[in-house]
Amino acid sequence: xxxxxxxxxxxxxxxxxxxxxxxxxxxxxxxxxxxxxxxxxxxxxxxxxxxxxxxxxxxxxxxxxxxxxxxxxxxxxxxxxxxxxxxxxxxxxxxxxxxxxxxxxxxxxxxxxxxxxxxxxxxxxxxxxxxxxxxxxxxxxxxxxxxxxxxxxxxxxxxxxxxxxxxxxxxxxxxxxxxxxxxxxxxxxxxxxxxxxxxxxxxxxxxxxxxxxxxxxxxxxxxxxxxxxxxxxxxxxxxxxxxxxxxx
Amino acid sequence: xxxxxxxxxxxxxxxxxxxxxxxxxxxxxxxxxxxxxxxxxxxxxxxxxxxxxxxxxxxxxxxxxxxxxxxxxxxxxxxxxxxxxxxxxxxxxxxxxxxxxxxxxxxxxxxxxxxxxxxxxxxxxxxxxxxxxxxxxxxxxxxxxxxxxxxxxxxxxxxxxxxxxxxxxxxxxxxxxxxxxxxxxxxxxxxxxxxxxxxxxxxxxxxxxxxxxxxxxxxxxxxxxxxxxxxxxxxxxxxxxxxxxxxxxxxxxxxxxxxxxxxxxxxxxxxxxxxxxxxxxxxxx
Lengths: 248, 285
What we know:
The complex is a heterodimer. Chain A has helices at 43-50, 80-86, 101-111, 118-127, 131-134, 147-160, 177-190, 203-209, 227-232, 237-243; strands spanning 3-14, 17-28, 32-36, 60-68, 71-72, 87-90, 165-169, 195-199, 212-217, 220-226. By secondary structure, chain A is an alpha/beta fold. In chain A, the strands form two sheets. A six-stranded mixed β-sheet of chain A has the order 6-7-8-3-9-10, sandwiched between helices. A four-stranded antiparallel β-sheet of chain A has the order 2-1-4-5, covered by helices on one side. The relative contact order of chain A is 0.18. The model of chain A has no long low-confidence stretch (mean pLDDT 92). By secondary structure, chain B is mainly α. In chain B, 76% of the residues lie in helices and 1% in strands. Chain B has helices at 2-39, 45-49, 62-93, 98-110, 115-129, 136-160, 164-172, 177-205, 209-212, 234-243, 248-284, and strands at 52-53, 58-59. Chain B has a two-stranded antiparallel ribbon. In chain B, a hairpin with a 4-residue loop joins β1 (52-53) and β2. The radius of gyration of chain B is 23 Å and the shape is globular. The mean pLDDT of chain B is 90. The interface between A and B is medium-sized, with 28 and 22 residues. Chain B: Keywords: Cell membrane, Membrane, Transmembrane, Transmembrane helix, Transport.
């Protein structure tokens, strides 16, 4: 098994508040890794550090080593746009651009100087299980799609750039059960090509889709392993309590 | 008893609110009716397409209409780029420190400065120091200064309405900060920015005090509108016809006609602002 993405001894603080403490994680290639834990445990912060989303926060302090294969993600020699092209992201709330469905996919390709003809757009939308639903309305504003369709459009937008890793920050938390199942099927399908890291609050979801699971609590990784082991045989009392819904 | 008391107090509350609203509307309607009633008689194609004649007791108001259009254009050319870019800097780039907060507070305060002060400032800076003389350009720049704080404030508010998740969406596909702002943030904020710009310009078009010392003329005979010369403008023409003219009674119908045209111009500008908002809302949903 090849490690695609990793963090070692990662410490992140915002102003005086330390959010991550000595976190080390590894995401294997073509696997789905879930990050679970109660709100405020730092799982989203960890996820967003991989595509340098914290660069926007002037008082964020990041120490430790983050690597995409052997490349240092925070190296001064690598442009941040290159990192974000190789590590895509899907957000908690679907955030399509205020543009047409077509342009939502084409925009990322354009600014990265990649080909963006119709066949490329079609391929990305097909890969995100959306093509059949929108093929006749490509010029329609993306805002008119349903919530679930918008989130699949955001996945298509990420996929279109042929990233190596896709980070997903609670991608189903704002969706109904039917849309959620569709997206889960899509994620399982995507792992053949991409390495996926997903933050989720839904224990069933983690069990349904994740190969590996990290349990985090108050900025630290408490337990990790194959998803089945974590859920059926948690070593820590805290993990056990959390997955059984004692606290959350 | 308790029940009656409640009912009485709610009637009083309701009555007070409705009453004050009605009183405000009453005066508004009276003003507009008065101007329409007395101005409509002078209104004709002839009135808006011919220049003032015979010491402004006859003829139309073409010259001040041209002046108002030109000065509004100069105001727009100056205040829109500066105002919008400044707002983009403040909202998207500036760090939230004491300097930024001071600049922002200063801009908010500037929008409260009386317009006559802008007129005096324009006289000192543009007319005298920069040697532009009393001219279209000096008055246009003065009105531009007056408009800046409004354009900055409304643009900043429009940018603030754009959620951070929209910015993150663009960054996450590899857009630079500049591309994010240019391609995603500004297009989303355009309806808000345009509405603010149009409302500000309609206000500027009706201002008298800032152009009083900086370029507005009592009377000029040609309509060419040179940028370095004095000009006639609707609000100043109205002020002058109502208070400064030697044959005040004779020119009164022209004054009301001018007032009506000015109100129509401002009304049309405001209407276009509403239309812009409506159109973009419709597109979004």
